[in-house]
Amino acid sequence: MTTPRTTPVRVTKAVIPAAGLGTRFLPATKASPKEMLPVVDKPAIQYVVEEAVRAGLDDVLMVTGRNKRPLEDHFDRNVELEHTLEASNAVDKLALVHEASELATIHYVRQGDPRGLGHAVLAAALHVGQEPFAVLLGDDLIDARDPLLEKMIEVQAREGGSVVALMEVPQESISMYGCAAVDGSGSEDPDTFRITGLVEKPSAEEAPSNLAIIGRYVLAPSVFDVLRKTEPGRGGEIQLTDAIETLVATEPVHGVVFRGRRYDTGDRLDYLKAVVRLAADREDLGPPLLDWLQSWLAERTSDNGADRAER
Ligand code: G1P
């Protein structure tokens, strides 16, 4: 049983599962990992590593699989490219190339058989050891202006146990997520709850709430022992949600509700929306993109009106 500690162990390690096949993005992901898909001009995975580093986690373990070499290359030096950019005095571009390789200390472990998110997290056991650690899922991007992980780490230090990020979703969408039952009583912070139960992708009728798990966790190392015994659950996969549900019986598990900007890059439409929203907020690209979008939409609307009038 974990009890809140007077001197909490500082969270320093982040685990990023990146072994998925990315079948929703075929053929783009046939030979290159979905984590490398650019969101504006940066691969999705780099946003996630940057988020971990902002929260003070500069020891990053990626759980990868076959086809994931480009991930390692992206976070490594590229000496040939650096020489070329140096020779042409392309200082800004050189800085961008360095940024990725200097961000964090990145380790890699292979998952082998992809048997679910819980199984991927279990592959981190040896690297993590006996400390609380963070898990960041690459399909969820959290806006750098809206801190979440920092708050989860604070809650974990105060309460012990594990902390899961939650988001309110419309009831009809809950079946796409893990869902939390919570007890709000006794909490001073209106966005932090004690979790009393978790269920992976319930139907709208079965769901205990409209609070969905989003892909950020700060977990007690005791989760590894539970994962070793967790049977395959929904979809025949070893589910992280099921392992945390087991922890609820013996240790504190808290939920932090996130109300900031989140971008889903997990399916094609949401990915397109993420690219447009992030580009629209950029100083260099935003103004011309928004001007163009407005006139393009107006043109389409008037074309459609004309088409309808003709019919
Ligand atoms: C995973 C988790 C699920 C969580 C979701 C957040 O599901 O199993 O509990 O709500 O990530 O993105 P996946 O989207 O990998 O099916």
Secondary structure: elements and pairs:
Blueprint: E1 13-18, E2 38-39, E3 42-43, H1 44-54, E4 59-64, H2 69-74, H3 79-87, H4 91-102, E5 105-110, H5 117-122, H6 125-128, E6 133-136, E7 140-142, H7 149-159, E8 162-168, E9 178-183, E10 192-200, E11 211-219, H8 223-229, H9 240-248, E12 253-257, E13 262-264, H10 268-280, H11 286-310
Parallel strand pairs: 1-4, 1-6, 4-5, 8-12
Antiparallel strand pairs: 2-3, 6-11, 7-13, 8-11, 9-10, 10-12
The chain binds 1-O-phosphono-alpha-D-glucopyranose (G1P).
Folded structure, characterized:
- This protein has helices at 44-54, 69-74, 79-87, 91-102, 117-122, 125-128, 149-159, 223-229, 240-248, 268-280, 286-310; strands at residues 13-18, 38-39, 42-43, 59-64, 105-110, 133-136, 140-142, 162-168, 178-183, 192-200, 211-219, 253-257, 262-264.
- It contains eleven helices and 13 strands.
- The radius of gyration is 21 Å and the shape is globular.
- It is α/β, with parallel strands linked by helices and 311 residues long.
- The mean pLDDT is 93.
- Among the domains are: 13-160 and 214-251, Spore Coat Polysaccharide Biosynthesis Protein SpsA, Chain A; 281-311.
- Residues 117, 137, 139-140, 177-178, 200, 212-215, 239-241, 266 line the site of 1-O-phosphono-alpha-D-glucopyranose.
